[in-house]
Every structure is written in C-alpha cells, then in structure tokens.
Design brief:
Layout (H helix, E strand, L loop, with lengths): L1 H21 L6 E4 L4 H6 L13 E5 L8 H11 L4 E5 L8 E5 L9 E7 L5 E5 L5
Parallel strand pairs: 3-5
Antiparallel strand pairs: 1-2, 2-4, 3-4, 5-6
The structure holds zinc ion.
The site of zinc ion has 5 residues, from strand 2.
C-alpha cells in the first residue's frame, strides 16, 4: 500500500515539477490528480482514466488569470513530454481545463484530444492534432 502510494506521488511529482520548472512564476491550479477507483466512478471519470494510475493531472490557469488555459495547452504541446492531453470542453478559443498525462516508465504518445458533449450530453473525444 505504502509502496503504491509512493509510486503515484513520484509520478505526479515528475509531471508537476517539470511544469513548475518550465513555466516558472505562472500559477497553475491543479483541480485533480490521483483518483482512487471509487472517487473516479463517483465523478463519472473514464473507466480507464489515467488519474487512477496517478499519471494524470487536471490543470486550470484561468483561475488565476495570468495565462489562459489555451496558452497552457499550447505551451505543453510545444515544449513538454506528455502522453495524452485533453482540451476539456469550453469553446473553440479556450478549454474549461486541461487534462495532461505523463508516463514515466514508458512511451509518451503526445496525443491531443478535444472532449465534447453530444446532444444527449454524452462525452466523446476528437483527435485535435496530428502526432508531433
Ligand atoms: Zn483529467
């Protein structure tokens, strides 16, 4: 149990410390990090959510207003290693938040998706950019 927890914390630390190191001075609100299966179910997260593996963070810069969520998205896409990033809802110009995952011990795909809702409120994902 302790070992698993430590592993997760280290993974999260590696994502957040690379963000902190490269976007220095810009405050980023982390709205979600590790989620256990129960919490993930309760909030309607994906069954294969990388949050449950401690490999994903949800980030929001609009909370502080120094840079926008779309600035953050572009910055990560252009400068950082990541596995998958999601433009979470919002508009064409700005997502409500940015989901980003990082695989410490494997291949990072640099896949960008946009989360949308259909007329029935069901969530679906569109590929946003070709792989870099
Ligand atoms: Zn997320």
């Amino acid at each position: 149990m302790m070992n698993g927890l430590l592993k997760i914390l280290r993974r999260l630390q590696s994502i957040s410390s690379s963000l902190v190191a490269t976007i220095s001075g810009v405050p980023i609100y982390v709205s979600s990090g590790y989620r256990g299966p129960e919490l993930n179910r309760a909030i309607g997260g994906s069954k294969r959510s990388q949050h449950m593996e401690g490999r994903a963070l949800d980030l929001d810069c609009d909370v502080f207003g120094r840079i926008s969520n779309s600035d953050l998205f572009d910055y990560i896409r252009e400068n950082l290693e990541f596995d998958q990033m999601v433009w979470e809802f919002g508009t064409e110009d700005n997502p409500d938040w940015v989901h980003v995952s990082y695989v410490r011990d494997g291949h990072n795909r640099k896949r960008c998706l946009r989360a949308c809702r259909d007329d029935n409120g069901k969530v679906y994902y569109e590929v946003m950019y070709k792989q870099l």
